[in-house]
């Protein structure tokens, strides 16, 4: 049994990010899913779906835990259910206009309580419409696109600040802790923090250690704010680099350029995946390089939504964000981009970072402080 809850919003409360115009469009998209399924209600329970539909509300406590809210969307409106000990903050800081709030005890059954609000007690569940919900999230709306651009710039700025101050003696843990501090300071959550110094460059998902970074290092940040996740990789080096390193850096940028050219409206993701495999071979990395790390894909309210494979046949649309991350031995390139009517716009940019021209677009070089 859920209980309607009323709370007074403090004057100093954080303003819920939901944009009325954007939320209206999102509700229409979900109602279209219900129409196609011949159903009258849908239960949203994942962080990705909830933060998208609520247009940026924070519905987590632990980054590793399940959301502390569930949402029933039906023909009459939007009905959020949360635990009684979370309701005050949700109401004051996260509840968009037009969404009702019910509570269950902190030890209650959240999903069952939300499902029980459905007229028949048996709403459609996310798992039944995974691809339909993903399609509904593909195209960013104006307000969320602006939020995403701001977050991406903040993530890129954090990279510049931290790597400019790094030295060969900086440890990997020191470097990622500085990155985490800057991400949190701009109101975001560091979902992923990676670093490999010169002695660990073979690892493509390098969790930090106490080792000094040495002559060369890679840093990776995935930062989330208002549900959106920006992803960026950067390199720093304290020497001129070997001829082999410089050559590999140029070739991985060429692989990325081929992927960017394939990322166009109407293309299918499995077609882009085929181009990725060809690009590695084309630029001297070998035909099996794609098997050694995932290649990225659409971005937005999930780190990758989804990771691209040969089985993913989603069609690319305008105003869809992406993070591709081609990598090779000792090299990787990664930025968050938005597909606009004038082409791909790189969002994770900082004018202070050194760049070079690649296929008509400014792309990051290794920073040499």
From TrEMBL:
<feature type="domain" description="Peptidase M24">
    <location>
        <begin position="155"/>
        <end position="341"/>
    </location>
</feature>
<protein>
    <recommendedName>
        <fullName>Peptidase M24 domain-containing protein</fullName>
    </recommendedName>
</protein>
<dbReference type="InterPro" id="IPR036005">
    <property type="entry name" value="Creatinase/aminopeptidase-like"/>
</dbReference>
<dbReference type="InterPro" id="IPR050659">
    <property type="entry name" value="Peptidase_M24B"/>
</dbReference>
<dbReference type="InterPro" id="IPR000994">
    <property type="entry name" value="Pept_M24"/>
</dbReference>
<dbReference type="Pfam" id="PF00557">
    <property type="entry name" value="Peptidase_M24"/>
</dbReference>
